[in-house]
Specification:
The protein is α/β, with parallel strands linked by helices. About 25% of the residues lie in helices and about 25% in strands.
Length: about 180
Amino acid sequence: GPQRSISRHVGQVSTFSYAGQIFRFFIDDRHDSIQAHHYAGEFYEIEELELIGRYLAPSARSLDVGANIGYHTVYFERVLKANKVVTIELQPRVLELLRLNIALNQLVNVDLSKTGVGFGATSHQARIHIPQSFNVAGAQFKSDRDGQFVIARGDDILVGEVFDMIKIDTEGAELAILGALGE
């Protein structure tokens, strides 16, 4: 018969309103620095999100590098009315939360096809290092030829893509990633 897959997540859904809309985020660690804000009923880094909104036109195409659990992605589509959001995220646990948050917020303009690969100045294998257990967003990827993670040049992955805005939050690797996004 057809192959089935079941995924269960221990946690809860936090629901809150912002700008006349209802938002939902899955919380599996209410002490995590980002999820704690969602647990409290607010967007993480709302001032930054609102600042971006002042400069980004509706129907924009956005690239969210280091998408984490998707709070930028959700905000870009639902509040800023982005026409397309391409997410780049590498961490398996975080990817599950990203997918859940996209589903919970009924996003339809998100392209997840490039998740599972990280961006860097060069293509290589890497291992993950999370210096603070309460902040999975602080993960860093260190070059390691035996590492389980794939890092690629952005230009190699995004051939033919055009974006109005690129958001990069990659714990210090931003300049290297920008250097590999020349096209």
